[in-house]
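Open question from group meeting: does this chain pack into something compact, or does most of it stay loose? Before anyone orders reagents, we agreed to write out a predicted structure and look at it together. Recording both the input and the output here so the notebook holds the full record.
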Amino acid sequence: MLIVAFANNDFKILKSLDIYYSLFKEVNLYYVDETDPEKLINTSIKSMLSTLDPYTVFIPEAELDNYKFITTGEYGGIGASVRRSENSIIINYTYEGSPAQKAGLKAGDIIYEINGKSPISKNSEDVTETLKGNLSSSIELLIKRPGDTTIIRKTLIREKITISNIPYFGLIKSNIGYIKLSSFTEDANIEVKNALIELKKQGAKSIILDLRGNPGGLLVEAINILNLFVDKGQVILNTKGKVKQWNVTYTTKNQAIDKNIPLVVMVNKNSASAAEIVSGALQDLDRAVIIGQRTYGKGLVQTTRSLSYNTKLKVTTAKYYTPSGRCIQAMDYSHRNGNGIAGRIPDSLMHAFKTKNGRNVLDGGGILPDIEIKPDILSKLAYNLYSKYFIFDYATQYVLRHESIPTIANFKFTNQDYTDFIEFLKTKNFDYKTDSEETLDKLKETAVKEKYMEGAKAEFEALAKKLAHDKINDFEKNKKEIIELIEEEIASRYYYQRGKIQISMKTDPLVAKALEIITDKKRYSHILQGIDKPSLARNYSFTN
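Structure tokens returned:
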């Protein structure tokens, strides 16, 4: 008699796989309707992985191109983004230097046909995939431009489209450099290095690194970017996993480009992953002042594993720890509530760690900036104008009437232009509900249910009229932020993404704060030394 000994976990795995195989076979054989085995398996895989965390995902062969784009920033196509608007497919923007831009395609153009077929029945994702393709392959588009009845035929040759990690860098003042880093795909460190060297050549004596909205990317790029500002031999990250091979200590390998240049890093709630590795390490090493809002809180590391049939698994293999020893993971996926929902690690369970200079920093909830600045919140009016594409459509009309605009430094959307914008809205039947009106609607619904409406009808009507009248004043009250949004959209039409970033910097309160800190050498130094510091709102336990 052969006795086979199993570790308890091994037996559970074999038992579960046997049950799964038996179940799948029975469903496939006996279910009343025809089943799609591949679809069933993919659904079960996705459901299984969703119980772990959002970052552990199965990548089927059909999605490998999208995965490659996420990691490399490259794809074959024409370099245009599209969206669906009612019964039209509209070009949202084109990338500078792309086949679409060189062919004269513009934001706002309507795509009538792609290779002889109408895209009307497709969603924007399907159209995007159609526009992509093998390098050097051709694609024919029929385009209609707003304000023109002519149908334009364009034949484009697909090229390798590379989305830069740095959409813009430049001098804000004569000696202050600015770098906008929007992602961490391949060669991000080289782009930052080249930008830093160029800015220093132009006279930059300090640097503002903008990581706002940066969702992260490749770990190795974050490590190499840190090495540009942190000298050789510094521990900048530790990763720890269940498998010993994922327990790694990362140290800087090279001499820094500039280990002393004053550095301010801007972050917000959408700065995640590799962006948090960079900002967290610079904070822990007292190498930079971090300003903005608390970051996303992704302290997990993923590794891609190859599977059979050219599929892949991106799986969380480790947690990462900044130089002070803290893990900034905000969501606790290992302890979910009864509904399977993961919760944030409560502030009461956070711990304080020490930076190189002895400043207190916290774990468990993203990177808390040295100086917190509340984000600007768009008014309901401005949000509706932007999200419903009224500003986009106005910019399209503006471009048709203006062949060019001044440089970003000199461009200004005037009061007369603003009046023209309001007149444009009148032709579009623009309307929106304020928060007050939405609250009033809910109150009216409650009054009807509770049978109070009949006695209060006159009061409700009077209040509704008052609120509607006040909406007229909203265009004047929110004029400044609406003009800023219009200027950004118009600038992007002539100077692309770099223009949009440049013009937004003129009125960006976080940029203004960064300039204030980086030009005040005494305060900058005091923040990093812990002399000038925000007070912690609660008492935290300390980790030695």
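Observations to bring back to the group:
The first helix runs from residue 8 to 30.
The CA atoms of residues 153 and 337 lie 56 Å apart.
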